[in-house]
Amino acid sequence: MRVGLVCAHAGPPRGADGLTVGTHQHIARVAAELAARGHDVRVYERRDDPDLPETATVDGYRVERVPIGPAAPLPTAELVPHVSAFGAWLADRWAGDWRPEVVHGHYWIGGLAAAHAVRETDVPVVQTFHSLGVEQLRHLGRQYDGPGERIPLERALTRAVDIAVAQCNDEVDELTRMGLQRASVAMVPAGVDTAQFHPDGEAAPRDQRARILSVGGLSPGHGQEDLIRAMRLVGDAELVIAGGPPAGQLTNHAEARRLGELAERNGVAEQVKLVGAVPHDQMATWYRSADVVACTPRYSSAGRVSLEAMACGVPVVGYAMGGIADAVVDEVTGRLVPPGDVRTLGVTLRRLLGDNAGRFAYGHAAVDRVRCSYTWERTAGALERLYERVVSRRKPVEAA
Fold it and tell me: Which positions fall inside the Glycosyltransferase subfamily 4-like N-terminal domain (predicted)?
């Protein structure tokens, strides 16, 4: 099958840490898995660097960099005016020898470009949003900083696609509230690289204190402030926060300073350690060094951190929402607490850190759960069946 994966953003920045490029990794892994199954896969992303080649072959699939807009990094809001040109470029490209049998849009920007490109053809469109503006706005409130046109354009995009792929049950519900029929929403969670994330291997250095690890970008809404407040109830343990800029730049980072001041005010500054950006290929060592991984973002559709931690055999304490609620089985692979309930979060962490046998049992169950339900092979297989279904049921467009 010929598959076109469209991401109207540029590829991940060179040298960026894995905490900022999770969705790009998702697209690349889906492309590689589909190519390994014998499909002809092409990934389309915006060219943001004139020194990059127009095309490249990676892991069996082809990357085509679309020369739309300035050859420089652009924020999402500045990509919107280029969507039509991106779609027109794709339509022209697909009018030649190679035309996809199915197009899969990623992010709302990529979905808009994909839908524009095939609007006068019988090529079906599958869409993965990765996050939804209306849901982020609900959870983040004033901290939501998405473009103003995002939410109405996402709603319009739901009417232009054949099927939407949700990554968690909360997202399924949200998409149906946006107007999609339930039969037009498929739940396909993200996968985990179990060759990279597993219990056996090196662990990052640590001292004798129990370690709680939090992983995520340093920006409001990722929940680190809740963990810092909860540390007052945890006792003698350290909270390690991985993410944000490189360690050498933390002193000039506004959110890092805010979190440091919050730790001082709560009397837990000696227990809180910010380590900055960690390359994704080193994250497994940090997960293995932890007694518990805490996942407390205000919004998380994929739950990637909880899955990677579980694959490394580490129990997760997380907020019962989004992908975290799907991944973590309460009292089996970790504990779920009500979002924003700092007191319950602190008490739960303290009790789990004091329960060696419980953490051991949760960790073993977590590894089994990931290997049974969250492998990339399973994700690619589900998408393959989905593509086959939409291709078979799409009827050719009648001549005008």
Answer: 22-191
